Amino acid sequence: MSDLIKDINLVGEQVDEKSVSCEVKVTENTANEGQRKLYIESYGCQMNFSDSEIVASVMQKNNFGTTSNVEEADLVFLNTCSIREKAEQTVRQRLRVFNRVKKSKPGMIIGVLGCMAERLKTQLLEEEKMVDIVAGPDSYRDLPKLVGDVDEGDKGVNVFLSRDETYADIAPVRLNSNGISAMISIMRGCDNMCSFCVVPFTRGRERSRDPHSIVKEAQELFDQGYKEVTLLGQNVDSYKWSDEENNKARLEKKELKEEDVEIVSFAQLLEMVAGVSPELRIRFSTSHPKDITDDVLYTMKKHENICNFIHLPVQSGNSRVLDIMNRTYDREWYINRIDKIREVFGNDCGISSDMIAGFCTETEEEHQDTLSLMEYVKFDYSYMFFYSERPGTLAEKKFEDDIPLDVKKRRLQEIVTLQRQHSAERNALNVGEVQKVLIDGYSKRSKEHFQGRNSHNKVVVFPKGNAKLGEYATVKIHDCTGGTLLGEIID
Ligand code: SAH
Ligand code: SF4
Ligand code: F3S
C-alpha cells in the first residue's frame, strides 16, 4: 500500500481496528506542470473511496491532477459519510482544518461531496461558510461545471439524485490502490429501508450497472497486472440487470419472447467476472442476508478464484429488534443462511458481520440474543457500533432513542469482547493449514516480511523469501495473533 495513503484512526464509537468504514485516504501526486491541483480526502465505506476514483477521473479530464499535499491544492474535495454522528463530526473537524489553510490561500476552492453533502444540501453552505461546492453522489459528472461556477464567483451546488447514473463509462483513476487489488462499483443506491440507516436518503434508488462494462473493467485491470477485484454495492445480492431498451425494441419486433428476456443476476455476474482469468481473484461486498441465494454460494464454490468470504451483516440476534430495524429477516432466517454456507463450504468460508448495540427499545434479553447468535456463528470478525440516531430515518421518526449511552457502550463492549474471543478461535483453526495468499504489501512491523490475504480475507504475515509483491504464495500457517495469521512460504 502506498505510503502516501494515510490511515488515520478515527475509531470513536467503532471498536474493531480492522474497520474499513472510517478511514482517510489521501491521493497521490499526479499533477503535471500547468495543471490545477486537486486534493481529495475520503471517509466512509468502500463505495465512497471508489467514488473518489471516479471524481479524480472526471477532474483529470478537465485538467486537474491530484496532490497529496493539501497546502498546495487549488481544489480540496472532502468525500463525506453520514452513517453515524461521529462520521459527520469528523468531517466538520476536517473542514475547520481546511478553512485555516484557505485563510493563507484565499483562491483555494473547498467542496463537500458524498453522503453528508446529499443529506444536508444547501444547509451545509449556510453552516460552513467557507464551503464553495456541495455535490451529492450522483452529480460527479457535473463537478467541472460546479468548479466553473465558483471560478465565476458563485457557489456550486448539485444534490440531484439519479435513477440511472452508474458512471459505467468512466474509467476510475486508481487512487486507493497498490496496483494489485482494485474496487469495482457494480451498483449504486439502496432500496432497503433499514430503519436506522441514512444510506437510502443519501444515495437514492438502487440501480445496477451494465455487466459488460463491469467485465470490461475487470479485464482491463487484469491486463494492467491487477490480481484482485472487489465488486462493490450496498446490497450486491440484489444486483439485477436487463438491457431494457434493447429488450423492448426486440420484443416489439417480436425477435424476443417475454420469457427469454435476459436478466443478469448477481450469481451470473460473479460467473462472468470469474471468467476473466483464473489468476484474478474476485471478492464482493456487502451481502444482505435476505438476498443471498444458494446460487451465489454454488457459484463461489464452483470457481476457485472467487474468494470464500462473505460479509453478511446481521445487526442484531433478536427477531423483534430485527423486525423494528426493518431488516426483513429474523434470527431463524439468518441462522438458516449460515447453516447453508457451512453446508456448502464446511469451515472453508470466512464470515464477517456488522452489529449495532443498543438500538431503540432493545432489552437486556434481546442484547443477550445478539451474543448467543454470535456464539452460534462465531464470526471471523465484525464491525461493531452502538446505535447513533440519524435525522430523517424511519427509526428517528418512529422510535425514541431510549437506551442510555452508558448502556449502549457496555453492550457494545460485551459484543466486542466476545468477538475478540471468536476471532482468536477462528484464527487458531487455521494453524497448520496451507493457504494461498495474494501478497499485497510489506508487513507493518518489518520490511523483511510480506503480508497478504488468504481466501477468507484474513491477513497473513510471512518472511519474504524470494517472493514478489503481487504474486500468489503458498503459505503454511504456524501461528496466529488476535487479527493476523503467521506463516512461511512452502514452495
Ligand atoms: N449495506 C450494508 C451496510 C452499510 S452501512 C448492509 O446492509 O449491511 C455499514 C454499517 O453501519 C451497517 O451494517 C450498520 O451496522 C452500521 N450502521 C448503519 N447505520 C447506523 C446507525 N444509525 N448507528 C449505528 N450503526 C449504523
Ligand atoms: Fe442501509 Fe439497510 Fe441499505 Fe444497508 S441495506 S445500506 S443498512 S438501508
Ligand atoms: Fe457513509 Fe454514505 Fe457509505 S453514509 S457508509 S459513505 S454510503
Automatic annotation (TrEMBL):
Its EC number is 2.8.4.3. Residues 176-425 form the Radical SAM core domain. It catalyses: N(6)-dimethylallyladenosine(37) in tRNA + (sulfur carrier)-SH + AH2 + 2 S-adenosyl-L-methionine = 2-methylsulfanyl-N(6)-dimethylallyladenosine(37) in tRNA + (sulfur carrier)-H + 5'-deoxyadenosine + L-methionine + A + S-adenosyl-L-homocysteine + 2 H(+). PROSITE patterns: MTTASE_N, MTTASE_RADICAL, RADICAL_SAM, TRAM. It is found in: Cytoplasm. GO terms for cellular component: cytosol. Keywords: 4Fe-4S, Cytoplasm, Iron, Iron-sulfur, Metal-binding, S-adenosyl-L-methionine, Transferase, tRNA processing. InterPro entries: Elp3/MiaA/NifB-like_rSAM, Methylthiotransferase, Methylthiotransferase_CS, Methylthiotransferase_N, Methylthiotransferase_N_sf, MiaB_methiolase, rSAM, rSAM_horseshoe. Residues 36-152 form the MTTase N-terminal domain. It holds the Pfam family TRAM. GO terms for molecular function: 4 iron, 4 sulfur cluster binding; metal ion binding; tRNA-2-methylthio-N(6)-dimethylallyladenosine(37) synthase activity. Its main location: cytoplasm. Residues 428-491 form the TRAM domain. Its cofactor is [4Fe-4S] cluster. [4Fe-4S] cluster 1 binds at C45, C81, C115. Binds 2 [4Fe-4S] clusters. One cluster is coordinated with 3 cysteines and an exchangeable S-adenosyl-L-methionine. SUPFAM superfamilies: Radical SAM enzymes. [4Fe-4S] cluster 2 binds at C190, C194, C197. HAMAP family: tRNA_metthiotr_MiaB (MF_01864). Monomer. Belongs to the methylthiotransferase family. MiaB subfamily. Catalyzes the methylthiolation of N6-(dimethylallyl)adenosine (i(6)A), leading to the formation of 2-methylthio-N6-(dimethylallyl)adenosine (ms(2)i(6)A) at position 37 in tRNAs that read codons beginning with uridine. This is tRNA-2-methylthio-N(6)-dimethylallyladenosine synthase. It comes from Flammeovirga aprica JL-4. The lineage of its organism: Bacteria, Pseudomonadati, Bacteroidota, Cytophagia, Cytophagales.
